[in-house]
Amino acid sequence: MKPPIPFKKLSVLLFLIILVASCKVLLVPEYNAQLEIQITNTAKATDRLYIDVLDVQQNTRTYDVFKERYNEIEAEINSIDLKNQGRAKNGDFLVIIKNLKDAFAEAKKYHKDHTTLSDGEAIAYRATLAGYWKPLYLSEKALKSAQ
Amino acid sequence: MAFDINETLAQMLGSVKTVAKETWKNVKDVANNYLQDRKLRLELLASLRIQKQISNEFFLMRVEDEKKIFESELHSIAIITKAIAQKAANAAIDVFQNAVMKALKL
User: Fold this and answer.
1) What is the mean pLDDT of residues B66-71?
2) A143 contacts B79? CB cut-off 8 A
3) What is the spatial distance between Cα A118 and Cα A120, in angstroms, rounded to a whole number?
4) DSSP sequence for B18-37
5) Which residues in B lie closer than 8 A to residue A92 (C-beta atoms)?
6) SS3 assignment, position A90
7) I need a labelling partner for B84 at 20 to 30 A (CA). Which of A62, A111, A146, B68 fits?
8) Are the Cβ atoms of A142 and B79 closer than 8 angstroms?
């Protein structure tokens, strides 16, 4: 019969096991399903804004007609930004969101300053803003697989 | 049961390889996806400019956007790569932890 493990050794071993068990590598923020839904919905709202802009005559596409929609989307982007500021390991996400925020603010200002948008401008903004949304969406989705 | 460090390390390495292999394809797919999107956007911008549907100033602003989108895409690829590394490292730690528990018959 094997001699029993001394109490002191057993304590050290248990301490090491607990230490390893509690030691999880964390390189990215934790996945947040609600945030993924919010990103998807706000990206969709951005796309829908330009689809609707393109659906009306150029002389009726005034900024005033669409300003509520711009403000709603801007508030959602700010909310996504705020939620990300509270996450650990958020450096890469904050850069992606800042780029998106700046681009949307510029698109909003352009429409406001020029009162209306041409078809070409609306088509270009729709494609460009989709390009800003995609890295944010795919990054949040990637966190799900890291869990 | 005896604790075999060599066997445990081999299993840890195996788990890292499995996770990395499974998920590396995702990184390649995402990078190709970004490249394809960029190609389509640049084609669209060029055609809008050639057809004079957008001004030169507006066109140049959108080209500047492409630089920022590229920056976002690089950060996104960094996140995806780190997520893979995190999953692989935690899988290896789990293997080690299980091996110790098994040796202790816990």
Assistant:
1) 97
2) yes
3) 5
4) HHHHHHHHHHHHHHHHHHHH
5) 75-76, 78-79, 82
6) coil
7) B68
8) yes
